[in-house]
Design brief:
about 220 residues, alpha+beta, five-stranded antiparallel sheet, four-stranded antiparallel sheet
C-alpha cells in the first residue's frame, strides 16, 4: 500500500512538473519569437525611413515594388542606413541599394533575404550577394501609399515619385511549430517623400498650366 501511494504521488508530481515545463518552454519560445519580430520590423523601419531620393536622377534612385501572391513580395530602394551591411560590403556604406524579398535556404525553407549593391551606377558593378535577413519569416507582403489617395497599392512602379508610406505585412513561423504562425503589420512613413513628391507635383502642375496656356493661346489665334 505504501509503494502504491508513493507511486501515485510521484506520478502526480511528475504530471504537474511536466505541465509546468511545457508552459515554461512555450513562454520562452513566445518571448524569443517576439524579440525576433521586433528586430526584423525595427530593421525594416530603419532601412525605409532612411530612403534616399533625388529628382535630378529619378531612374537611379527610384523605388521598385513588385507583388507576388505565391512567392511573396519584393522591394528595392536606395537607403542611407548601414543596417545589415556585411563587413565585406562597407565600401558602399552611406548610400546603397537594398533589395528585400522572400527566398529559400539550402534546405528549401522560406527565408527573408536581402542584397546590397552600390547605389551609384558603375561601369562594372559587382554581382550582388544575397544574405539571410531572417530565417523566421515565412510570408512577406508590402503595400504602398500616396498622400494624394487613401488607397494602398500592391506594387510600386512610378519612376518620378516614391510612396509617402510603406506597409510591411510579415508572417513569422510556419504551420507545425510549437507556436502558431503570427502575422505582424507595420506602416512606416518615408521622410524623403515629402520633398520628392512635392517637387514632382509642382512639376506636373507646371506642365499642366503650360499645356493649358498653350491651348488657350491657340484658341485665341
Amino acid at each position: 500500500m505504501a509503494v502504491t501511494i508513493l507511486a501515485i504521488v510521484i506520478t502526480a508530481v511528475y504530471g504537474v512538473w511536466s505541465v509546468g515545463l511545457q508552459a515554461w518552454r512555450h513562454g520562452e519560445d513566445a518571448t524569443a519569437m517576439f524579440q525576433r519580430q521586433r528586430i526584423v520590423l525595427d530593421t525594416l523601419s530603419e532601412l525605409t525611413k532612411s530612403v534616399l531620393y533625388f529628382n535630378s536622377d529619378p531612374s537611379l534612385y527610384r523605388l521598385y515594388g513588385q507583388h507576388n501572391e505565391t512567392e511573396g513580395d519584393s522591394i528595392s530602394f536606395v537607403t542611407a542606413s548601414d543596417a545589415l551591411l556585411q563587413s565585406n560590403e562597407m565600401s558602399i556604406a552611406g548610400m546603397r541599394r537594398v533589395t528585400i524579398w522572400m527566398s529559400q535556404d539550402q534546405f528549401g525553407r522560406p527565408v527573408l533575404a536581402i542584397a546590397n549593391t552600390p547605389a551609384l551606377e558603375l561601369d562594372d558593378p559587382p554581382q550582388p550577394i544575397s544574405h539571410v535577413f531572417s530565417a523566421d519569416v515565412s510570408g512577406f507582403t508590402v503595400k504602398y501609399s500616396r498622400a494624394s489617395t487613401s488607397e494602398w497599392r500592391d506594387d510600386w512602379q512610378e519612376e518620378n515619385a516614391i510612396p509617402n508610406a510603406v506597409e510591411f505585412i510579415v508572417t513569422f513561423g510556419t504551420t507545425g511549430d510549437r507556436i502558431p504562425p503570427i502575422t505582424v503589420t507595420r506602416a512606416i512613413e518615408l521622410p524623403a517623400a515629402q520633398y520628392a513628391n512635392l517637387h514632382h507635383d509642382q512639376s506636373g502642375n507646371s506642365s499642366e498650366r503650360t499645356a493649358s496656356s498653350s491651348g488657350e493661346s491657340d484658341s485665341n489665334q
